Amino acid sequence: MQTSIGGAMNRFYAHCQQKNFADAPFHGNAAVLNFINTAKNSRRHDYLPSYDAFLYWCREGGVIDGSTYLTLEFEAYCNPIEIQELHRQVIELRETLTELFTALLHKTELPVYAMPRINRWLATARQHLSYQVINGRPATQWINIHEELAFPLWVLVLEAQELFDPVWLAKLKQCRGCGALYLDVSKCRTRTWCSANACGKKLRNRRYYKKKVLGNNA
Ligand SMILES: [Zn+2]
């Protein structure tokens, strides 16, 4: 039985090592695209099988900082029932964003249910945003987010809202290798894979094999 936060942390780290988070997709150039890319497809497993895993992923992916992670990790440990519902919302948000950005990428009809859901999450997130004076200028700040287990979801929804801007949508692409979504921020906009060391390497090796091996046997 877990009786301390230390025990809970060990459990999370064991889970993450077991799931090999070092391989988690972080190549999207945007946290919200990385979030979409955590879903299972033919080449990868689901990186977010629980709220605990989601929280850890958020820390690894820069959605929340280490201090927020520790606070929410303890809060999650104390609220096992609440995090089950939150995990359901995590998956619902991921599915909604996946369908939405895939439709935007392929310029197809947007799913009708997507906007009401996004609006619902945005409305909650905005209740925790406030203009403050920072260095003599107005800037938005998060307020009253301490111990709010849904906070990482709000961060992701706000970033999704930013990506709806046509400037960013023009950079949206899908990896030819694994199907991951990413922003192509390369100078010439000619990137066709999510990562140079993952799918990029595989595609280069395939091209080399075709040219050298198949070419010589032709
Ligand atoms: Zn890829």
From TrEMBL:
Zinc finger CGNR domain: residues covered: 172-212
SUPFAM superfamilies in the record: Jann2411-like
Origin: domain of life: Bacteria
InterPro entries the UniProt entry points to: ABATE (IPR010852), ABATE_dom_sf (IPR023286), Znf_CGNR (IPR021005)
Name recorded for this polypeptide: CGNR zinc finger domain-containing protein
Organism this protein belongs to: Mucilaginibacter segetis
